Amino acid sequence: MSLKERSTVCSPIRTLSDLFNLSSSCLTSRLKCSQLVSRYTSPRQKILLCHDMKGGYLEDKHTQGCQTDESCYRFFRWHLIDMFVYFAHELVTIPPVVWIDCAHKNGVQILGTFITEFDKGKEICRQLLSSDHVVNQVVDALVLLMKWYSFDGYLLNIENPIEPEHIERLLSFVSKLKLACSEIDRNSIVLWYDSVTKNGDLKWQNQLNELNESFFNACDGIFLNYTWKSEMLLQSKINAGQRYRDVFVGIDVFGRGCFGGGGFNTSEAISLSHKMDLSTAIFAPGWLFETLDAKQFIENDRKFWTLLEPYTNQRTLHLKSLTTYFSDGCGEKFFLHGLEIANNSWYNLSLQSYLPNSSSEHIWSLKYDDAYFGGSYLELHGDAKGYLNLFRCCLPMKSRWEAIIVFKGSDDVMLELECDDGKLIPLDQSEEDLVIRDWKRKTYRLTANEQLSIINVSIRDEKNANTIVKLGYLSIHPVESPSLEVSSASPLIKSIEYNSNVSITVNFVDFLQEHPSSMIFVFVRDQFERYTFLGATHQSYFVIFRSTINSDKPTHSTLILRQLTMEMNISNLEICCLAYDKKFDELKAKIEADPTCVKQKDRDGRTILHWACSSGAKDIVQYLLEICNVRPDIPDELGWTPLMIAVSTGHIEIVRMLLQTNKVDIEQSNSSGARPLHYACSKNFYEIVQLLLEHDADINATDKYKQTPLDRCCSKGNTEIVKLLLRNPKIDLSMHKECDGDHSSISFEQ
User: Is 248 within a domain?
Assistant: First the structure.
C-alpha cells in the first residue's frame, strides 16, 4: 500500500519499534490541518474533554470522510471546553485529522496520548527507561508526530509499576517531552495522569500530594483519577499553590466510582471542582452515544451539556469572518445551494461548521432532511418576541463588510449584530431577497466602525412570535474576502496515479496549497445520473478506492470534483452573477457601457447566457438573444450548451426561446455524450420532452455509455415519459438493450 493510500486512514502506534522507525524521510510532506484559531480565555479554570469511544479509530479514522449508514459520534460544544484529548488504549494515540480540524477551527487545543498498561506496558517502560539515549529517541519521535499532524501535545498515562531505579529517568522523560514540545509550539501542553507514584507504585492518589507532585512539577498539569472525595480536592488546591488551575479533576461520565455516579449526574461532580476553582477533565463523554439511543443523541447531548454549562466558562472565538452552513459533520444526503446532489449517508468531521455558542435558553436542533449546503440545517425556536440568539464572538470591524443569511420557514427574518459598545449595527439590505430552491437569501451591507467589534449575532422575527426558523447558511465577512463558493473550478488535477486494481490517486495542482481555506469535494456519478458523495479533503491529493465506486453490475462511473473556497458568488465573473441573480437593469447597464463583456466567459467556459438559462431569467435571455445577438450554441468546457442547461433546470419557456432562434443544434452532445433529450427524460420534464420531440430530437440517440433517452427515464422510474416515448413511431427498442453490456470504466470531470 502506498504512503498516500495509508494516509487516508489514521491509526495509532502500538510498539516502540514502530515509534523508532518513524523518520522525517518517511513523512514525505506535512499534512494540512486547520490552524488553531485564537479565542478569548478567562484566567479561570479550564475544561478538558477526554474522548474514549469504543477503543477509538472508528469512522473518524478516515481523513477524507466516509460513507456510512450507521450513526457516528461527534462533538460540537467546543465553546464550553479548552482542550480535547483523543484517547485509546494504544501506546501512542494520534488524533485523527478530522478531529484536529474540528478542534482547531473552534480554538480548542487537541492532545494525543502516550499510554502503557499491564504487563506489556511494564516491558515497554523497561525498554523506554533503559538509557537516556532511548528516552531521547522516544521524545524525538513523539515531537515529530506532533509536528507532522499539527496537534498540540500529549497526555501521559503510565498505568503499570515502574522499577524504583527508573523513576528519575521517567521524570526526565516527562520534562524533556514538555521542553521539546514547547520548542515546536510554545503553547503546547503535556499533562500527567495520576497513576504511578514517585516510588514506582501503580497507586492512584485521586489528589495532588507528595507522591505525585514531582510529575506535576515536570509538566503542564495533572489529570486526577476520578475516585476522589471532596476533601481531596481542597488539599490538591493547597498543594498546587499558584498552579492550582493546572490541576484537572477527573470525572468519569460512566460513573465508575465517581462522585455523583456519572451520566446526567456528572454535573454534581463538576460543581465541586468548579467550587474549588480547579480545572476539570471530563472522561468518556461517549456514554451519551454508547449507552443511550443513538437516534436521540442530539437531544441527549443538549440535556447533558445544559446541566454542565453553569460550571463552564463560555469561550469567545476571535475570527476575521464568520461563515457557517450549520453542520455537525454528517448527513443523510448532500446538498449544493439547496439542490440534493447525492443521497448517500456520510460522515466527515472536517466538514463540521460553526454551531450556535450562545446560552441554551433558546432551543435549536439539527435536521438532516434538507440543507442549503452539506447535510443539515439549523432549526430554531424563537421566544415570545421572536428573538433567537446565535453566536457570541469577536469580529473586529473593517471599512466594508457584508452579511448573508439563508433561511426558510419565515418571510421576515432580520439579522441583528451587536457591537462591544452595546449598540446594534445599522444594516442596509443591498439587494432584493433572492429565492434559491425555496431558500431565501438576504444580503446586507454593514456600516462599519473600525474601532468596534461584533460580539453577538442574533436573528429576530417580530411578526411571528414563537416562530420556527430553518437556517441554512450565515456569513459575516469583509467585502474583500467574501464567504462561500462551490464551483467546478478551473483544472484542479495535476496528475493521476493508477494503483493496480485497488485505488486511484488524484493529485491536485499546487495552487490549492497556497489557499488553506480551499477544500475539494469528490462525487461519483453513474451512467444513470445518480451521484454518491465520496468525501472531501484539503490535502494535496485524494485517494479513491475502487471498492467505493464499483457496484454489482459493471457500470461507467464519472468522478466529479468541486472546489469549495470562502466565497459566495456562483461564478467568478460579476456579470455572470448578475445574470444568475436576475438583475436585468444592472446587467443591461454594464453591457451598454461595455458591449464586449457579453463575450466574457467564466473559469468554466460559461457565458452570461448559460447563467441566465440556469436561473430562469427569461427577460435576460430574451435581451441577450434579440438585442445582443449572443450565440445560443456556445458550449462550456464540458460541452454543456445553454439549451442543455435550460432543459436540465426545467425552464420550458427558455427552452422554447432557444429553439425558436433556429441557431441551436438540438443534437449537440456534451463530454458525456448526452443530448438535451437525455436530460429532459432523466429529470422527468414531460412537457420539455414533448417540445424536443416536436423539434425532431433523435429519440434513439445514445450517450458515451450507450444509453438512450428511454434508458434514462426507465432508470429513474419516470413512467409517463416512458409511455410517451413508447408511443413514438421512431422508437427503436433494440437500442434499449445496449446498456446491458460491460462498460466498466472511470473518467474524470472537474
Answer: yes
